[in-house]
Amino acid sequence: MMKKIALLCLLLSPLSYGHFHYQIDSTATLRSNVKKQLQAVNFSWVYGQKVTDLMLQSGDDMNTLGRAVINDLAKLHYFTYLEFNNKRVATDQVTLYQLETITINGKPRLKLDFTLVLQSPLYLHGGRLDIIQKDTGDSASIFYRNATRLLLNQGFETTCKAEVNAIQGFKAGETPETVSIHCRR
User: Fold this and answer.
1) Which domain holds residue 176?
2) What's the whole-model pTM score?
3) What are 81-104's pLDDT values in tens digits?
């Protein structure tokens, strides 16, 4: 139980651990409805080795650990905000998620898949969708690295273009990239 409490404190209060920083490699997939409106964004995060090792030390099964992680992230708005033409897009609580262990270079890593559903579907044509991911505790840095990690589902692939730009001189825990999807009319 003490390990679980320590893990939850780590996720909720990163500043109390001083200089603990970790990376998340992210992929995002835009999901449309039959009217070609944005309905949801699916995220796939692969946690860095250091935080994976800490979370796996809890000894919890993946369902229990996944529920604890998603509940903690909910308090931090999943480190994610969507903006369309510089206006915040309202999203629902995450109910679709899965945490699993994958292997990278022979070592276990945690992968979290979750879906942010928009409260109201949104036409993207003629506008810009920004995905803003920031850990307010300045511990996690979320990277896409390039536009191939932004997947445009049917309805968006012919009219929209994804763009990822590195922010020079960012500090650990700050937003390292701008992530945008530009859609023509």
Assistant:
1) 2-183
2) 0.87
3) 999 999 999 999 999 999 999 999
